[in-house]
Design brief:
By secondary structure, the protein is an alpha+beta fold. The chain has two domains: 6-194, Fructose-1,6-Bisphosphatase, subunit A, domain 1 (Fructose-1,6-Bisphosphatase, Chain A, domain 1); 205-337, D-Maltodextrin-Binding Protein, domain 2. It has helices at residues 6-14, 23-43, 47-50, 67-79, 146-149, 218-228, 246-256, 275-288, 319-337; strands spanning 85-90, 97-98, 108-116, 127-135, 158-164, 168-173, 178-184, 189-194, 205-207, 239-240, 259-262, 292-294, 314-317. It has an eight-stranded mixed β-sheet with strand order 2-1-3-4-5-6-7-8, with helices on both faces. Strands 10-9-11-13-12 form a five-stranded mixed β-sheet, sandwiched between helices. A hairpin with a 4-residue loop joins strand 6 and strand 7 (178-184). Helix 6 packs across helix 9 (319-337). The protein is globular and about 60 Å long. The termini are far apart. Bound molecules: 6-O-phosphono-alpha-D-fructofuranose.
Length: 338
């Protein structure tokens, strides 16, 4: 076999760390299994109406749930008994999710957005599952707490996403580079397709919802206009690419280069995207691929979380592009303070 499965890759990565116990490998394996089941459901979602599912109970009499609730339930059921976690948190659930007492309690913490971008599913737009893994910080003999879930992003031991698109692809990092695996539906295995992904230092693509232009920071308005000017040496004008599904936008930019922005604006002072479920895992991945991620000022991975579902502005992608937008906004702030 001249291909490498995700399972094989995880084991070989783990062998590089003599102190590794195999728990993280087993956790990632369980996670990949859950996403294969979610992928099956996402890929037949368009058929729900055609196959006569009523929308509330299908031909088997099963309860047909909204896809993001289905994905949430699938992740919880797949991950709560593996013995590797002490606690979970999901974008779909207000509070932390404790591991049932009759299951073995592990040393890891899993935070996830079960199906980001799910509002796009009816238009057959790519959507994704995003995950973030930490080590617990409370004593092993105690019940895990919110403190275990509210750790800064630089404490992540692994992070990744699965994009359900023209193919299903899992991209992850465990702190030793970013690797992409494409699901081969013929035999249900994730196969290594993108070894050690490195994102270009500078790009020609910017991703932002320009419908919010009126509400943006002046420095950001000037930056976007700068990208639209003609200047051959700096590769301007850039191309505007915005799918409205973070996993799809960030994935494209990771591979081609680009900057994705969901800024604060006068209506949403903290932007829209969640620090723990979207921004931190994507920031860990992008930094491991040689890119940069911030809230416009602070390194994303250094932000000390205060609330489980807190939102933060995000500027993420090619390093030079993130530095440039930060400069535009900082300069405008200096002018405004005079
Ligand atoms: P807007 C999808 O709803 C999502 O959470 C992200 O995946 C995406 O980047 C963002 O919201 C799009 O938001 O306001 O541009 O529609």
């Amino acid at each position: 076999m001249n291909f490498q499965t995700l399972a094989r890759h995880i084991i070989e990565e783990e062998r590089k760390y003599p102190e590794a116990t195999g728990e993280l490998s087993s956790l990632l394996h369980d996670l990949s299994l859950a996403t294969k089941v979610i992928s099956l459901e996402v890929n037949k979602a368009g058929l729900v109406d055609i196959l006569g599912f009523t929308g509330d109970s299908n031909v088997h009499g099963e309860q047909v749930k909204k896809l993001d609730i289905y994905a949430h339930d699938m992740m919880v059921k797949a991950m709560d008994h593996g013995g590797h976690l002490c606690v979970m948190a999901s974008e779909e659930e207000e509070d932390i999710i404790h591991i049932p007492p009759h299951f073995h309690i592990g040393k890891y913490v899993l935070l996830f957005d079960p199906l980001d971008g799910s509002s796009n599913i009816d238009a057959n737009v790519s959507i994704g599952t995003i995950f973030s893994i930490y080590r617990r910080i409370t004593p092993d003999d105690q019940v895990a707490t919110m403190e275990d879930c509210l750790q800064p992003g630089h404490k992540q031991v692994a992070a990744g996403y699965v994009i359900y698109g023209s193919s299903t692809m899992l991209v992850y990092t465990a702190g030793n580079g970013v690797h992409g695996f494409t699901l081969d539906p013929a035999f249900g295995e994730y196969i290594l397709s993108h070894k050690k992904i490195e994102t270009p230092k500078k790009s020609k693509i910017y991703s932002i919802n320009e419908g919010n232009y009126l509400y943006w920071h002046t420095g950001l308005k000037k930056y976007i206009k700068y990208l639209q000017e003609e200047d051959e040496e700096s590769g301007r004008p850039y191309s505007s690419r915005y799918i409205g599904s973070m996993v799809a936008d960030v994935h494209r930019n990771l591979l081609y280069g680009g900057i994705f922005m969901y800024p604060a604006d006068s209506r949403n002072p903290n932007g829209k995207l969640r620090l723990m479920y979207e921004c931190n895992p994507m920031a860990f991945i992008i930094e491991q691929a040689g890119g940069k991620a911030s809230d416009g000022k602070r390194r994303m991975l250094d932000i000390q979380p205060e609330k489980l579902h807190q939102r933060v502005p995000i500027f993420i992608g090619s390093e030079d592009d993130v530095k440039t937008v930060e400069k535009f906004m900082a300069e405008e702030e200096v002018k405004a303070s005079k």
